[in-house]
Each structure stands twice: as C-alpha cells, then as structure tokens.
Amino acid sequence: MLHLRVISPAGSTAEAVERLRSHAGTAHLVVHHGVAVEPDGDLVEADVAREAADEVIDLLCGLGIDHDGGITLEALDAALSDSADRAEEAAPGVGADAVVWEELVSRSGEESRLNATFQAFLVIACLLASVGVITDSPVTIVGAMVVGPEFGPLAALAVGLVLRRRDLMRRAGLALGVGFPLAMVVTALVTLLSEAVGLLDVTAFREGHAAVDFVYHIGWYSLIVALLAGAAGMLAMTSAKSAALVGVFISVTTVPAAGFAAVAAVTGDWLRSLESVGQLAVNLIGIVAAAAAVLALRRRGQRVRAAGRPLSAG
Predict the structure, then answer these.
(1) For 2-94, CATH number?
(2) Which candidate, 11, 145, 188, 292, has a CA 20 to 30 Å from the CA of 229?
(3) 118 and 179 in contact (C-beta within 8 Å)?
(4) Cα–Cα dist 13/7, whole Å
(5) What parts of the sequence cross the membrane (predicted)?
(6) What's the confidence (pLDDT) of residue 310?
(7) Mean pLDDT, each 10-residue run in order, the chain (314 residues)
C-alpha cells in the first residue's frame, strides 16, 4: 500500500474526495478542511493499493491539483485493515508488478543529478578500481562496483527515452558526460602521484594483472552481462525491490573499466586503455538499452491491461 497525501484547493476538494471514494483501490479516506496553509486549501489523505496509484493520480491531476495544490506518495510498510485488504484485492493487477510512473520519474530524476555527492562517489569508486587494477585484486574491483553511483543516470536515460522526457535525458547525459571524464582525470593524477612516490611499478603493472584482465576484455559476454544487468536494474526500480540493485552494481564493468583506462593511460599502455574505454561504452549502452526495453514492455503491458484486452505477442 501507498499513503496518498493531497493538498487540494477548497473548490476542488469535494470532487477529489468523490473520485477517491469511488475508486475501489483506495481505503482510509480522511479529509481535513482548511488546514493547509501553503498552498491554501484542504488536506485529503488516503491509502492506495500500489497497482491503483497511477489511476488515482490521473484522477486527481485531471482536477489540476498537481498545479494548484500538491500530491505526495509514500510507501507503507504495513497496513492492518480489512478495508486495505479489500482495496488491494479490488485493484487491477499485482502490487509487486505495478509501476508507479510518477514515482519512477521523480526517483530517477533525483538520482541522475550531477552534484558534489554523485561526483565524490564516482571518483572514490574509480580510485578503488585503480587500486584493484594496480594490486591485481578482484575483491577491490568488486568494492568499486558497489560504490559506483552510475546506475541512477543510466536508469534516468532509459526512463527519458521511453517517456520522451528530454529533461531527464539531458540531466543524466550531463551527469555521465561530466562525471566519468572528471573521475578518470582525478584517477590518472593520483596514479601519477603513486608512480612518483614508488607505490606503482609500471613494469610490474604491465606484466601482472591477469586476475583483473576481464575489465578490458571486450566480448559478447560483456554485452550480454550489460543487457541482463540493465534489465534486472529496471525491474528492481519499477517493482520497489531495491535489494536486487546491489547485484546489478556488482555485475557490470563500468567503473572498473574507467579506472583501468586511467591507470593504463598513465603507464603508457594505450591499447588496454582504449580497450577499457570500449568496455565502458559497451556496458553503458547495453544497460540503457535493456532498461529501456524492460520499461517499454511494462508500460505496454499496463496499457493493454487497462484497456481490458489480453496481452498479445505482437
């Protein structure tokens, strides 16, 4: 269940309440008249089955409340109520399979912003990857995968492609287009410093990274893993199963490839540096393509079910 909170202009409250009351997927409807200060109006609250949330939001937006008032949603960990159970049973579909589109747009938009926190995580992840590359440590490489924040902008790109939201695509493109090069430059500078103080033996590096050579080896499995990771990541985001995202982070070679490219460039190993950049590009493109495909299929499925006809293979 989701908790719906609506600030409604006084002139729209009666119709909003009627629309909520008439929808089978709502429960626990409460109205507080005249309590909203900014914007001025009434406060309407209800619990909504996740699979009914999109329909309910559309009903309220049809009254212009998203412009003249406000609509917020938050997840409920538990709802002990017969009326809540009836609402979930009456709502179309299954809650775990439902996509709340406004929630997805808001979440992906927030996680795709280029800001100091995003850049710091990406720099730290690339530095961890560089340490893993220099020490030939797969464990450190995995740690860099987990720290990397890049799936947020990649998911936002997919959402932007499917929903034709150019604002999301621009924001995500900026985060990736600025974030990765800057993180790689910082990693290269730190690598130069490591070489200067004797922490990095260039000869040993060129001869001794067999345990992490998967980072720059491009093959069909690179694309296959990226596609599977993108699909799993989007499924996790749209079904609120965020725990699965950790597995997505560990499976893709984005940050490690960026870190390897920087270290290899500093040591003069340009072939492997270019191969690492290629690996990075394959993973980024594969993740976005698969995530967009999953999102498009889920959107089409919801539209077909809403139209009351079976999902066809065509």
Answers:
(1) 3.30.70.120
(2) 188
(3) yes
(4) 9
(5) 116-135, 141-162, 174-194, 214-236, 243-265, 277-297
(6) 42
(7) 92 93 90 92 92 87 91 85 85 67 79 91 94 88 89 92 91 94 95 85 73 84 90 81 59 88 91 93 94 88 58 38
Which residues is 250 bridged to in the sheet?
none
Task: Report how far residue 267's alpha carbon sits from residue 201's, in angstroms, rounded to the nearest whole number.
Answer: 9
Query: What per-residue confidence (pLDDT) applies to 208?
Result: 67
Provide the CA 311 distance to its chain's centre, in angstroms: 26
Q: Which amino acid is at 3?
A: H
pLDDT at residue number 306: 58
What pLDDT, on the 0 to 100 scale, is given for residue 194?
Answer: 87
- Give pLDDT, residue 242: 57
Q: What is the DSSP string of the chain?
A: -EEEEEEE-HHHHHHHHHHHHH-TTEEEEEEEEEEETTTTEEEEEEEE-GGGHHHHHHHHHTTTHHHHSEEEEEE-S----HHHHHHHHHSSS-GGG---HHHHHHHHHHHT---HHHHHHHHHHHHHHHHHHHHT-HHHHHHHHHH--THHHHHHHHHHHHHT-HHHHHHHHHHHHHHHHHHHHHHHHHHHHHHHTTS--HHHHHH--GGGGGGT---HHHHHHHHHHHHHHHHHHHTT-TTHHHHHHHH--SHHHHHHHHHHHHTT-HHHHHHHHHHHHHHHHHHHHHHHHHHHHHHHHHHHHHTTSPPP--
Cα 100 to Cα 78: distance, rounded to the nearest angstrom: 18
Domain residue spans in the chain?
2-94, 104-303
Rounded to whole angstroms, the Cα distance separating 161 from 170 reads: 11
Q: How far is CA 109 from the centre of its chain?
A: 9
Dihedrals phi, psi of 9, to nearest 5 degrees: -55, 145
Place of tokens 């049973």: 89
> Cβ distance 139 to 196 under 8 Å?
no
